[in-house]
Amino acid sequence: MKPDIGLAEITRRMATYDLVAMPVVDSTHRLLGAVTVDDVLDHSLPRDWRDRDAHEDEEGTT
Prior knowledge:
This protein is of the alpha+beta class. It is built from three helices and two strands, in the order H-E-E-H-H. The chain has helices at 7-16, 37-44, 49-59, and strands spanning 21-25, 31-36. Strand 1 and strand 2 form a beta hairpin. The radius of gyration is 16 Å and the shape is elongated.
């Protein structure tokens, strides 16, 4: 996967092939890094989702 591919395309590819990670490569196919399912979730959820969960746990809400 090239570094300039958007989140929607990454999500689509990961879901289509049931991937938990995808390599990110440059134009010479050298590995630059990886995108994981956790990365996709972090970008898909609201920034304060962890704070909301902690607040609900304190109130005893599930």
